[in-house]
Amino acid sequence: MSEVKLTAESRTEFGKGAARRLRRAHKIPAVLYGHGSDPVHVALPGHATMLALKHSNTLLTLDLGNGTTQLALPKDVQRNPVRGEIEHVDLVLVRRGEKVTVDVPVHVTGEPAGNGLTTLELTTLSLEVLATAIPQAIAVSVEGAEEGTQIHAGQIALPEGSTLITDPEATVVLIATGGAAETEYQGAPEGDVVEEPAGETAGEG
């Protein structure tokens, strides 16, 4: 897994105005909590944080100053719905040797047999793993799989030390029948043209 070191500056101003000022200074407001401690409000470097959080479950080493560091995982990342920029991050404290429950992306490899089409029914698997050994993805091979094949969560090989939390019977990948799925829109058949009532031109009124 990836581990990234970030400098976390303490902050004492809160609210929307303070958050806007931080973002104008290319910083991201964040809250660090967990292990029964009081929440710690910090500001993270904007560009470095955006790069770090491109990957899910990135383990962060936060330099809090005075020689103090903390390990944390992103719990909730709020993004601007238009620009996609990170506006706020919730971080949860972790310790080396501690196990955590995380959702890990599923990555399908290979090609099924014949005209089979690969359908991903679950995009992530929930695992319990060491905080310092979170896999970036779980690979599921469909190489040569026949149409109708279903791969369940319990059939997927997991990294050593990982425990599956997702229902083992849950279908993760399905190989659908290619011929049935390959339908194209041909337009309305002749004689079925729908006309708008006279006088109801779009935009009027």
How are the secondary structure elements laid out?
Blueprint: E1 3-7, E2 9-10, H1 16-24, E3 27-34, E4 37-45, H2 46-52, E5 59-65, E6 68-79, E7 86-94, E8 99-109, E9 117-120, E10 124-130, E11 138-141, E12 150-152, E13 163-164, E14 171-176, H3 178-181
Parallel strand pairs: 1-5, 3-7, 8-11
Antiparallel strand pairs: 2-4, 3-4, 5-6, 6-7, 8-10, 9-14, 10-13, 12-14
How is this structure best described in words?
This protein has 205 residues and is mainly beta. Helix content is 10%, strand content 43%. It has helices at 16-24, 46-52, 178-181, and strands at 3-7, 9-10, 27-34, 37-45, 59-65, 68-79, 86-94, 99-109, 117-120, 124-130, 138-141, 150-152, 163-164, 171-176. The chain has a 7-stranded mixed β-sheet.
Write down the Rg.
24 Å
Q: Main beta sheet: strand number and arrangement?
A: 7 strands, mixed
- Percent of residues in helices comes to under 10%
SS-based class: mainly beta
Strand order of the largest sheet: 1-5-6-7-3-4-2
Strand content: 35-45%
Order of helices and strands: EEHEEHEEEEEEEEEEH
Which features would summarize this protein structure in a list?
seven-stranded mixed sheet; mainly beta; four-stranded mixed sheet; 205 residues
Short description:
The protein is mainly beta and 205 residues long.
